[in-house]
């Protein structure tokens, strides 16, 4: 291979310095994979059948995923153009950032939050501005509001927050949105919305139907509650003027016919799938209670994952999980995110966590 120094292609310096997106570790056959907030249930037979029956793979899909958008528009009581579908909600977020940010414009978000936020901002040539979470791992919305400058184009609110777990309440969100200038896009990332059991939590669909904040776009996904992470399909709901801008930046034809059919079949089976979601949420609450009993200071968990603030011991504790056949997601120096997975994994999680807390200095 030619020496890298002899390839004179000019890569943008911020891209050359950017590590590629890192996903949670894959697990071997023996281990439980609790590192990527996936759904542990196998797909429903009806969903598998819909994928099999989808348009033959030698044909391109419908570029605007009209059937799925129509179905979602009916479900949420909005117009067809108020819905946009993408190859995962993360790709829609990338489109929104690209559509609104020129070099030097700012994207404000809480930190720690979803790893992709700073990465998407940098790729778009924008400046990533992160605002530390509060002591109890929640969004500090007044501080986020104060971080907005005349270069801010996008503010991202993640509820429930990945990886720490708490939600933003409806009341907090409404008060915050009123402080955000009308020309700043608020992205409300609700990838884990279906797992939320706190009635005070913000609900993006309610925000939109009340038409209180026209600069809000809500992001949701079929990857988590609906168990279609491998097929890559998510959606946004918001004003068509904003979504048209996202549509203009879309890489054409990236939502496959298989993904569209699987999403439609999942909506047909929504009740059954939400039953599974309820089982995961109950499991989550049991794990949180067990971890707290063991002495961990676990923040409120409203997604399909829990957060262990292990601080400087993070890598050592993650190794203990690994040794116990549990692949978790460590964030060095900060904490560990553990996905709520198979029922059989929960006792193991609690046993390793209880032993690890005793070993903490
Ligand atoms: N938002 C958040 C907060 C997430 O945690 C994730 C996935 N980890 C996504 C968005 C992206 O999900 P997808 O692209 O699979 O829809």
UniProtKB/TrEMBL annotation:
EC numbers: 2.6.1.57
Reaction(s) this enzyme catalyzes, per UniProt: an aromatic L-alpha-amino acid + 2-oxoglutarate = an aromatic oxo-acid + L-glutamate
Classification via CDD domains: AAT_like
Source superkingdom: Bacteria
Segments forming a coiled coil: 257-284
Protein role: Aminotransferase that catalyzes the conversion of aromatic amino acids and 2-oxoglutarate into corresponding aromatic oxo acids and L-glutamate.
Subunit structure as annotated in this protein's UniProt entry: Homodimer.
Protein name, UniProt field: Aromatic amino acid aminotransferase
A GO molecular-function descriptor: histidinol-phosphate transaminase activity
Domain Aminotransferase class I/classII large: 32-350
InterPro entries: Aminotrans_II_pyridoxalP_BS, Aminotransferase_I/II_large, ArAT, HisP_aminotrans, HistidinolP_aminotransfase, PyrdxlP-dep_Trfase, PyrdxlP-dep_Trfase_major, PyrdxlP-dep_Trfase_small
Cofactor(s) annotated in UniProt: pyridoxal 5'-phosphate
N6-(pyridoxal phosphate)lysine, modified sites: 224
EC class (word): transferase
Keywords: Aminotransferase, Coiled coil, Pyridoxal phosphate, Transferase
């Amino acid at each position: 291979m030619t020496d890298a120094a002899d390839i004179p292609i000019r890569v943008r310096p911020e891209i050359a310095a950017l590590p590629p997106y890192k996903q949670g570790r894959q697990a071997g056959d023996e281990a439980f994979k609790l590192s990527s907030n996936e759904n542990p249930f196998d797909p429903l037979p009806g969903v598998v059948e819909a994928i099999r029956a989808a348009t033959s793979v030698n044909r391109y899909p419908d570029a605007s995923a009209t059937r799925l958008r129509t179905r979602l528009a009916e479900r949420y009581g909005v117009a067809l153009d108020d819905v946009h579908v993408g190859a995962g909600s993360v790709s829609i977020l990338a489109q929104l950032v690209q559509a609104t940010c020129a070099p030097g414009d700012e994207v404000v978000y809480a930190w720690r939050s979803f790893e992709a936020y700073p990465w998407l901002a940098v790729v778009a040539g924008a400046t990533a501005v992160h605002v530390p979470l509060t002591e109890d791992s929640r969004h500090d919305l007044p501080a986020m509001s104060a971080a907005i400058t005349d270069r801010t184009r996008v503010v991202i609110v993640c509820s429930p927050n990945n990886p720490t777990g708490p939600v933003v309440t409806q009341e907090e969100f409404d008060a915050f949105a009123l402080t955000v200038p009308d020309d700043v896009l608020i992205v409300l990332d609700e990838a884990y919305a279906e797992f939320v059991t706190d009635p005070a939590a913000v609900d993006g669909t309610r925000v939109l139907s009340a038409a209180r904040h026209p600069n809000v776009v809500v992001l949701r996904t079929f990857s988590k509650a609906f168990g279609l992470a491998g097929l890559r399909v998510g959606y946004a709901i918001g004003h068509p003027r904003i979504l048209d801008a996202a549509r203009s930046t879309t890489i054409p034809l990236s939502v496959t016919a298989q993904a569209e059919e699987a999403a439609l079949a999942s909506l047909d089976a929504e009740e059954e799938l939400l039953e599974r979601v309820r089982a995961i949420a109950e499991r989550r609450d049991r794990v949180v209670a067990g971890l707290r009993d063991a002495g961990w200071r676990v923040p409120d968990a409203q997604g399909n994952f829990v957060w262990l603030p292990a601080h400087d011991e993070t890598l050592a504790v993650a190794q203990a999980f690994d040794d116990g056949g549990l692949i978790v997601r460590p964030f060095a120096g900060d904490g560990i995110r553990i996905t709520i997975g198979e029922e059989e994994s929960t006792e193991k999680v609690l046993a390793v966590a209880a032993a690890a807390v005793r070993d903490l200095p």
